[in-house]
Amino acid sequence: MKELGRRWREFWESPGAPFDPPMVGTIFLLLLFGICVMYSSSSITAWRDFHDSEYFLKKQALWAIIGILVFFFFANFSYRRLERFALAGIIVSIILLILVFIPGIGKSVGTYYGRNFHRWIGIGPYQLQPSEIAKLAVVIYLSAMISKLKDKENREPKKFLIPGALLLSVLVLILAEPAFGTTMEILFVVLAFVFLFGFPFRNLLLVGLVSLPLAYLLVDRVGYRKKRVEVWLDPYKFRFDEGHQLVTSFRAFLDGGWFGNKLASGYAHRYLTYSHTDFVLATFVEDFGFVGFLFFFGLVLFLLYRTYVLLKKVSDPFGFYLGAGLLFILGTQFVINSYVVTGLFPITGISLPFMSYGGSSLLVVLAAFGILVNITRRENLGV
């Protein structure tokens, strides 16, 4: 027993490892687990649409292999160099966000309520989602900006004009796609940086009050968003059309019980829209039950908390802000997706990290964790 305890302490403290073994191990455990869940959630849809139950699995596995390479690249690429590319990164993101609206380059998808979504750029048989890249670029840019302007004498209003214009451009372009959920993610991370920066609360409150009419217009005057709020408030009223997705998600949680069912055999696997993307959590619970749900989120909470503990030891301002921003936006993504699927938040297109099908999302998540692993390397913690 003592020997087991000693080995556990050695693993936890990792005296000779440049990376934190518990953190890296949890990342790859979630990646493997997520691919298995995505396969179970997508197999029926893949067979129905492509006559190949492994269609989505093969594509996701390819993205996972590329993502692992991206992860190790950023884990070994000094995060301090990212500060030099912060401005270029956000400008490139803006250009990519513009390209999604150009016919022949951007890919649009129509919906049953008559709205076209412009969120992707076609690259041969694959598609790139610039809004995912923009999230990473915004965090890097904000981290670089705040680390340079942390001194009070540098907080002149004119120094915020260009950064504000760039951030506003990103938000407007993403909102125009439309990708309301991603817009919210970026807004939340901007607010988090505002608090980290020490922006006066009185001014922050004023900005919030001024923004309320805009928020009202975005929800009330834009048809599909207003409808989503109505569906969220009473999904059973719309259970045969717009509310079917949320009602089916509720049923999946109920059918899953404590320990789940036979894989890919439930009602949600056959009838839930986006069962392998935005609503993959519902089909996961249908398969693995509430115990599986607790296991998955236990791993997520452990990973986020372990990263938080390590980030507190980082003394470099840019590294700390960058790590905090990435941790916050990843945590926000987990929370929003789980809230949407369980009916605690109106439906919006936010993927679940590691589990949802999608190459762009998986690459950005692994890139973000690669950067976090690099920031929390042993030599950066002073231990």
Automatic annotation (TrEMBL):
Principal location: membrane
Pfam families reported for this sequence: FTSW_RODA_SPOVE (PF01098)
Keyword ATP-binding tagged: no
Any one annotated GO CC term: plasma membrane
InterPro entries per record: Cell_cycle_FtsW-rel_CS, FtsW/RodA
Entry keyword Transmembrane: yes
GO MF terms, alphabetically ordered: lipid-linked peptidoglycan transporter activity; peptidoglycan glycosyltransferase activity
Compartment(s): Membrane
Origin: domain of life: Bacteria
Gene Ontology biological-process annotations: cell division; peptidoglycan biosynthetic process; regulation of cell shape
Membrane topology: Multi-pass membrane protein
UniProt-recorded name of the protein: Probable peptidoglycan glycosyltransferase FtsW
